[in-house]
Amino acid sequence: MSQTGSAPAYVVGIDYGTLSGRAVVVRVHDGAEMGSAVHAYRHGVMDSVLAATSEALPPDWALQVPADYVEVLQQAVPAALRAAGVAPESVIGVGTDFTACTMVPVTADGTPLNELPGLSTRPHAYVKLWRHHAAQAQADRINRVAEERGETWLPRYGGLISSEWEFAKGLELLEEDPELYRLMDHWVEAADWIVWQLTGTYVRNACSAGYKGILQDGAYPDRGFLAALNPDFAGFVEEKLEHPIGSLGSAAGTLSAEAAAWTGLPAGIPVAVGNVDAHVCAPAAGAASPGQMVAIMGTSTCHVMSAEVQREVPGMCGVVDGGIVDGLYGYEAGQSGVGDIFGWFTAHFVPPEVTEEAAVRGLSVHELLTEQASREEVGAHGLLALDWQSGNRSVLVDHELSGLLVGLTLATRPHEAYRALLEATAFGTRKIVETFAASGVPVTEFIAAGGLVKNKFLMQVYADVLDMPISVIGSDQGPALGSAIHAAVAAGAYPDVRAAAAAMGRVQQKAYLPDPARALTYTQLYEEYETLHDYFGRGGNDVMRRLKALRRSARKVREVSA
To answer: What integer pLDDT is reported at residue 562 of this predicted model?
Structure first.
């Protein structure tokens, strides 16, 4: 294992989330987290107006400013080094991860289009965040044409390509702003763009390419398929997307002099190939073996696991050979809204007296509602919810779907509705777990990671709903630790990710155990959830899609009138 003289060696992991970036300094030989720092994106998420013009954005848009990502390197990394008390020269490598699918349109040298003269007012010139769902019409067409043509790659993605992913968003860009599409030289995952900024070299990571870029068995969808979508889209792969692939845990390059000045780290140290925040979290939780599903629970939840076999799982986000660790097939599924749903409810549906009580007691609104909800028996609120406020990622892969709450009465209290939303996300996870098992990919261990693991009541609800023990990652910053693990491998400190995960990862086994009585009642509620799930999500009633269409139509009328 690499050391700097006799002193311990360190690596830096940088995790790019939805609202901020976090840098963590990690000791190589045991994974100890020495210090960290967070930097919030200056422009946050632009989902209502474009910051440069204050112009309203259409529904389902979510943009970001790429310069905000560079500020994380300039601010969070030096601050993390100071917090750790670690000399920069003892750092031997850097690793990064990013939310996905988050896309950056750039010129040949990596300059984002929004930074070119005269283009800051064009919404399509900016980063399209993973949460950008406005390409659903393009995703629907991709799925329809792929099914009609019998494309062999479609079952590898559960039979449906998401509006969040590279091809749908790229097609949206072509069809809504063809001039910008022509100006764009590369359609780049943010995970790869930030590594490009660190090294001066563009390397496409195998994880994003496989899960979000429809790269299967060494090939992307062919020109014939792309032309069937739109004749002007035929050259998308070779002209905008295709690029040399870097394997996970390898070095994409070394830290440039410019990036060294930004970060305070030594120029020339290895920078690991980019990765996706959820997938990189698996080794941080010690989950490098088949059957271990890691749920990274935050604003959304991403479920990742490895297996020795390749299966077609309905509604999964993808299966990629070596997509998480080499030698195993990596699977991904997910829920588009989890913490976002809880935050939405507390922001808009809590009366002043609840907010005031929380303030008096020194609690957050979340903490107060959780405390009140935990006193209730399962089913006592008489409510059932569908967790689709941000659409459904798995297993329906449909962002035209929307949330639902059944059973409201004049006696319903805020904490009861809040609990029903917590339970709905657990039911959504159970649907994913059961779909994997039915497809021949059983989940043998469920490991929770991400910010929501701090809510002990929520974790117990998940254990009861799944009727299986819940293990919990032993780090508050799983993706950043996972990126640090990949940095250690890229720097040569370990031979592979599995070995690094065994030494640097951490997990609390069976932290939450299911209660048999509660699990039984939750199974009864879950059966009702499945009924609603299939009725509204599988064509029994397309009212959610019709309402979305009506909403878009009404907004267009308002914009024209204005």
So the answer is: 67
What mean pLDDT comes out for the span 229-245?
98
- b/e map 416-428, b = 16+ CB within 10 Å: bbbbbbbbbbbbb
Using alpha carbons, list the distances in angstroms from residue 177 to 13, 125, 240, 424, 559. 36, 9, 15, 38, 19
pLDDT tens, residue by residue, 285-314:
999 899 999 999 998 999 999 999 999 999
Q: What is the DSSP string of 125-155?
A: GSEE-TT--TTHHHHHHHHHHHHHHT-TTGG
pLDDT level of residue 559 (50, 70, 90 thresholds): confident
Q: CA-to-CA distance for 69 and 38, rounded, in angstroms?
A: 12
C-alpha to C-alpha distance for 96 and 163, rounded to whole angstroms: 24
Q: Does the structure show a pLDDT above 70 at 2?
A: no
Q: How far apart are CA 283 and CA 488, in angstroms?
A: 12
Closest of 420, 401, 387 to residue 538, by C-alpha = 401
Rounded Cα–Cα distance for residues 102 and 208 (Å): 10
Strand partners, 27: 10
* Closest among 257, 269, 251, 258 to 203, alpha carbons compared: 251
Higher per-residue confidence, 288 vs 6: 288
Q: Are strands 49-50 and 20-27 parallel, antiparallel or unpaired?
A: unpaired
Find the angle CA(344)-CA(299)-CA(356) to the nearest 5 degrees: 40
Q: At 296, which helix (H) or strand (E)?
A: strand 292-297
Q: Looking at residues 70-92, what average pLDDT do you find?
A: 98
Question: Is residue 3 predicted with pLDDT exceeding 60?
Answer: no
Residues 64, 450: contact at Cβ < 8 Å? no
520-534 confidence digits (pLDDT tens): 999 999 999 999 999
What is the rounded distance in angstroms from the CA atom of residue 124 to the CA atom of residue 50?
A: 10
Q: What is the DSSP letter of 464?
A: H
Q: How far apart are CA 141 and CA 228, in angstroms?
A: 10
Task: Give me the DSSP letters along 411-422.
Answer: T--HHHHHHHHH
Q: What percent of the chain has pLDDT over 90?
A: 95
Rounded Cα distance between 162 and 36, Å, is 34
> How big is the CA angle at 339 (ends 290 and 97), to the nearest 5 degrees?
55
Cα–Cα distance measured from residue 340 to residue 421, given in angstroms and rounded to the nearest whole number: 11
User: DSSP secondary structure string, 304-359?
Assistant: EEEESS----TT-SEEEETSSSTTSEEEEEEES-SHHHHHHHHHHS--HHHHHHHH
